[in-house]
TrEMBL record:
Family in the record: Belongs to the class I-like SAM-binding methyltransferase superfamily. rRNA adenine N(6)-methyltransferase family. RsmA subfamily.
Protein name (Swiss-Prot/TrEMBL): Ribosomal RNA small subunit methyltransferase A
Domain Ribosomal RNA adenine methylase transferase N-terminal: 38-214
Positions annotated to bind S-adenosyl-L-methionine: 31, 33, 58, 79, 104, 129
Keyword hit for Transferase: yes
Reactions accelerated catalytically: adenosine(1518)/adenosine(1519) in 16S rRNA + 4 S-adenosyl-L-methionine = N(6)-dimethyladenosine(1518)/N(6)-dimethyladenosine(1519) in 16S rRNA + 4 S-adenosyl-L-homocysteine + 4 H(+)
Organism: Saccharibacillus brassicae
Function: Specifically dimethylates two adjacent adenosines (A1518 and A1519) in the loop of a conserved hairpin near the 3'-end of 16S rRNA in the 30S particle. May play a critical role in biogenesis of 30S subunits.
EC number: 2.1.1.182
Enzyme class: transferase
Amino acid sequence: MNEREGIASPKRTKEIIDKHRFSFKKSLGQNFLIDQNILAKIVGAADLDATKGALEIGPGIGALTEKLALNAGEVTAVEIDRRLIPILQDVLGPYGNVTIRQADVLKVDLKALFEESFVRSEKVSVVANLPYYVTTPILMKLLEEKLPLENIVVMIQKEVAERMSASPGGKEYGSLSIAVQYYSEPELVCIVPRTVFIPQPNVESAVIRLKVREKPPVELEDEEHFFTLVQASFTQRRKTIANNLRARYFPGEGRERMEQLLQEAEIAPTRRAETVSIEEYARLSGIFLREGLR
Ligand SMILES: C[S@@+](CC[C@H](N)C(=O)[O-])C[C@H]1O[C@@H](n2cnc3c(N)ncnc32)[C@H](O)[C@@H]1O
């Protein structure tokens, strides 16, 4: 192998694909990276060293896995497509610190996987070029399971990255921004053109880093209640928060009580959900719980 090019060059990728007669499956979000600079940016953003572990989701033919093997201590890669396993074993053979697992990451017991895979690592990060059809379920699973993670550095659809990192006040800000920001501090690393993939995806991409929080930014009595209330607030984006919440919590009743509760949380009832901060939603959730509104 040409060490400078690594696996991710158009020529090398084509050689591997031809050798193994591999055909891409669109349904599995298979768009492989063929650009060394983007790979370097992804790995750089994860802040890895030999004392740290890396979990990759969807290694494909191993372009990013190879960089992780060179930059981290223990590396585990979970790939759903059985046809890729012999290819990965072939191309990653020279690296003794990589373990390949064939599985659907959404069905994996991640806590058990972490215990088995990262015995020597002081910290672990997830680093991946994610399959776009399941980006949000994968990220929410990683965050909600409260795994001992340092960073999650992922290539995702640009539009989703913008929603995850949006601040209150804009049209990108919604329940996804709030969920992701409750568990992590997102930062957009770079925008990525379609031309660095084989085959090229239909959408623009971005690399985002989620620095996983040790402690949430707000203290909640009941996380489930908070997220239900946030979802309900965004039911119809054109409506005010008062109208959306009234429809969910007091269907058919007058607006007065709803307005009082919002005012108690220092949220003007005429505001829209997209202007309300995490702190304000947390306050409102506490007030609703006190009133028995579930
Ligand atoms: C966008 S490609 C990235 C491939 C490679 N990491 C790269 O950057 O070139 C996404 C990969 O995720 C795999 N994949 C799709 N769904 C998956 C799932 N539920 N669990 C694990 N891997 C999955 C696909 O087979 C594919 O290899």
